[in-house]
Amino acid sequence: MKLSAFIYSPYGYTGEQTPRAALIGFNGNRYDPPAGTYALGQGYRYYSPAPMRFYSPDHLSPFGKGGYNAYAYCACDPLNFRDDTGQHRTFARLQHFWESQSRQPIQQVAPRTIKPAVQAIANRPLKASAPALALKTKKKTVSFNLQPQTHRYPAEPIADIKFREKEIQSLSIYIEAFRKRIKRKKRMLNELNDPSTLHFALSQGFDENGYNIEKLKLAVWLEDAQYRIRRLNNALKTYMHY
């Protein structure tokens, strides 16, 4: 008594009550009921769906002596690979593309060879002609006027003076506003340095560490402000003595 299980494989599926000889898998391979295998590779080797292995590994196997796992499902990918000769796999989906690309055979063009006369001329050192030497020896000389002349128009000093006056006025206003801001920051720092201010801040729930950090930030700002005010005064003097 021969038992036949319901088997799925890349070559279709078969059942106990189905005539296997009449079934063809999706890739067109016919099942051989007496042998219980598929004749693949133009009969070069056989595949058994029960153990999902190939029988009789061929002697041209690229995997050494071969074995049951030598050609398992065409590299485990029967959808993208196929083996029409039974000796090596090919790309199934790309086969049509390569065939369409290779319909017109590529013509092999022989490499060009230089004739002896042309080769002799090509290897002959070039001699410079007389006009070429004359152009090579002749150099262009460009002279520059080292004493530039400056032209002033009558309206130019007036416009320049008005521009300086406007800049001096704007800069003076900015310096005065910045000095007032420095004075306010100094008063704030003096208040923070007062012990009574610290006691009041602690009574209100402020952290002493945060209180000291704010004092440090304010002191650093005042130090930078003194540097900025000196730079602004120097710029103002430059405009006034121009």
How would you portray this structure in words?
This protein is an alpha+beta fold and 242 residues long. It has two domains: 7-101, no CATH class; 155-240. It is built from seven helices and eight strands; from the N terminus they run E-E-E-E-E-E-H-E-E-H-H-H-H-H-H. The strands form three sheets. Strands 3-4-5-6 form a four-stranded antiparallel β-sheet, with no helix packed on it. It has a two-stranded antiparallel ribbon with strand order 1-2. Strand 3 (31-32) and strand 4 (37-40) form a beta hairpin. The chain is elongated and about 115 Å long. The termini are far apart. InterPro entries: Rhs_assc_core (IPR022385). This is RHS repeat-associated core domain-containing protein.
